[in-house]
């Protein structure tokens, strides 16, 4: 198995984190933002939707989209609930992450983090993203204030998925994480897991 | 079962379409954009992420996110592949839809369609969304030019999911659908299915 992975991106990190927690190996092919390696992977047709991460199976078949890769690699493990409703709740958080959380929490961080994007970080846009990002983090806090995990009683792929961009939301995105004690405890729980690897490990 | 459903929204329509194709019934509760019914559903805590659609089970449990509802209702039907890789490909399209397609194709349509949002439809934004929406439609076309369905050899939830906003992309979004013959044939295939219901039916 190979993973086309963008080292700086939360979407790619999610997959590396799941592999680490499962004790599974994949050959990691770095395709950083604005590098030749990324351009080459695109030109060679290895990134079907034009983005990393992409999982390449041993027979060459490709699978794009971080959360679909989590579902593929996680199938049959303890991170995927067997109860149909809890399973669907896990997916609700994961679709919400791609639709709402990523477009606010991750985008604000990216506008600050990547020098090439700073011209898009107008004061109006950054203020809007601060408000909408805090509102999305509050939706997570509402759940995590009195539950250990996002869906059901155990850790699922939804927690790995949302950890990707949430654990750097303060440092990279400039969000005020002191408002979200439930999220902070949840981040501590995940980062203390056996096998855990950080974003830059 | 009850479905909190926004009549004008492709996300809510996807779920109504799946119910129709499966011959299943749910009580449809209309929560149109900027109506008292929507405000009431939010105030009553019936929309956990603040948006429609939401499925309410007979015991009162709630499930938000259109694509998670499709997965919940579709489990065990012919619309969900049993092969793990094709299943994951179906999810790739569905996550991509929430992350890329909806934020361009559906957003451009919404800015034109809802009078309350027209002040956001600046010429610059509409031009940007036209370019990015066409690029996303081209990704679908690349697949549908020589395949009947998005994932594997049979229709899956991915087709229902992407049909939601794609079938009105020309009329509502102003996209040039003459560029995409594969998509147009796929739209015809879906709208000819037994049990099919249109957006306004």
From TrEMBL, chains A, B:
Segments forming domain GST N-terminal: 1-81
One of the record's GO molecular function terms: transferase activity
One Pfam family, short name: GST_N_3
KW Ribonucleoprotein (keyword) present: no
Domain GST C-terminal, residue spans: 83-201
Alphabetically ordered keywords of this record: Transferase
InterPro entries: Glutathione-S-Trfase_C-like, Glutathione-S-Trfase_C_sf, Glutathione_S-Trfase, Glutathione_S-Trfase_N, GST_C, Thioredoxin-like_sf
Top-rank taxon: Bacteria
Record's protein name: Glutathione S-transferase family protein
Species of provenance: Paracoccus aurantiacus
């Amino acid at each position: 198995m190979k993973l086309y992975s963008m080292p700086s991106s939360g979407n790619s990190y999610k997959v590396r984190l799941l592999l680490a927690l499962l004790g599974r190996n994949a050959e990691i092919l770095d395709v950083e933002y604005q590098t030749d390696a990324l351009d080459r992977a695109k030109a060679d047709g290895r990134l079907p939707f034009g983005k990393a991460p992409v999982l390449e199976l041993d027979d060459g078949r490709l699978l794009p989209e971080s959360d679909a890769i989590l579902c593929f690699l996680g199938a049959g493990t303890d991170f995927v609930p067997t109860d149909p409703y809890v399973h669907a709740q896990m997916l609700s958080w994961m679709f919400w992450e791609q639709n709402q959380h990523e477009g606010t929490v991750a985008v604000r961080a990216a506008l600050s983090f990547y020098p090439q994007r700073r011209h898009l970080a107008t004061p109006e846009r950054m203020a809007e993203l601060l408000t909408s990002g805090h509102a999305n983090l509050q939706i997570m806090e509402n759940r995590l204030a009195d539950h250990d995990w996002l869906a059901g009683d155990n850790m699922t792929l939804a927690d790995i998925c949302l950890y990707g961009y949430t654990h750097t939301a303060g440092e990279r995105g400039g969000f005020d994480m002191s408002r979200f004690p439930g999220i902070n405890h949840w981040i501590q729980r995940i980062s203390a897991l056996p096998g855990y690897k950080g974003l830059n490990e």
